[in-house]
Amino acid sequence: MPFSHQVPSSNNLLDDLFVAVSATCVTGLSTVDTPNYWSPFGLFIIMVLIQIGGLGVMTLATAIGASLLQNLSLNTKLKTSAEVRGNGIFNIRAAVFGIIKTSLLFELAGAIILTARFMIRYHYDPLRALWHGVFHSVSSFNNAGFALYSDNLMGFHDDPFILIPLSLLTIIGGLGFPVLVQLRKYWRIPRRWSMGVKLVLVGTAVLLPLGTLAIAGMEWNNPHTLGAMDPATKILNSFAQSAATRTSGFNNIDMAHLHPATLMIIDVLMYIGGGPAGTAGGIKITTFAVLFFIALTEIRGEGAVNVFGKRLDRGVHREAITLVLLSVALIFCSTFVLMVLTNFTTDQVIFEVVSAFATVGLSTGITAALPEAAKIALIILMILGRVGPITVAAALAHRRKPVLYELPKERPIIG
What we know:
Elements: H1 13-24, H2 34-37, H3 40-55, H4 57-68, H5 74-83, H6 92-120, H7 126-141, H8 160-175, H9 177-186, H10 195-219, H11 231-245, H12 260-272, H13 285-300, E1 306-307, E2 310-311, H14 314-341, H15 346-357, H16 372-398
Antiparallel strand pairs: 1-2
Helix pairs in contact: 1-3, 1-16, 3-4, 3-7, 4-6, 6-7, 6-8, 7-8, 8-11, 10-11, 10-12, 12-15, 13-14, 14-15, 14-16
């Protein structure tokens, strides 16, 4: 609508569609300058779409249905259970409202901290500070990466009271709601944690510092990124960028001037993503960890795949391998399409494609310069990246058919 734009006559339908998809898929990629293109109403719509996308369409629909109806249909319960990775359908109403309460609680806490900081340090008036606090809190917890500044968060590179709260909200939102629920119930009893929760927590604890060290090591003397900062600020920005890479998409350093090796590291982190059934994207930490333990088991010559004292269900092997192969094929095809349609370097195109698929939103600055066909390709990729892994995993998990016979076994040569 014209009143969603600061200059009503300047709106472009494809750009509007691109940003709407990016917000709903909690990606963060944008073909326009967010603070200068959208009116306050347009920015509010983006924030609402981010919240809907972060919670999940079926989760929100179930909450509305539960509020209006006494009983939910079996079909609705099954779809919502698949979206939130529930083990059953009997407590789906409680699970959905628990997710909504958890989201709003963390977003409220983040909004209070950020609002206070904007007022105290930057002397925003109360209404502006509140708006900026709420918007960035919602954007970070839902791993969206939209910011109300043309340079995203680069203007706050020396402010830990902005970067750290946003990083923590990103990490917490990226853990996934199943992890948050179990931590709330059994945070003092790690032995009660499920295998999935342990994989997410251990994976996060490993990837965050590795990403921080990799970014700091590669960019420490780069005058266009970390080079001009003091050591403490370099570490702060490396940590914040590592957290945002999986998968909020905020950037507090200039992505366009990163070393090619740093771009490759970020590609890997974006592709892995965060925890399942949360606001993060990517193939998820659990999928990556499952493949790691499968490979480790084969290297050791063992039979069953054992993780944290439990045997991994063999059906999960096939789910993880299928999801990874499909995602790699999708990224390869999308990269090929964009390389045909544009003249950007391979590094830039792969970075853009992985960012769109993993719903991260980081960019080297080429998004606005893409031709219309390439923008449409990224729109499709963002949608597939957001709903594709959920759909594939749910279909594989809930549509298993019992096999009453087995065919003769044979081993082809591998490698």
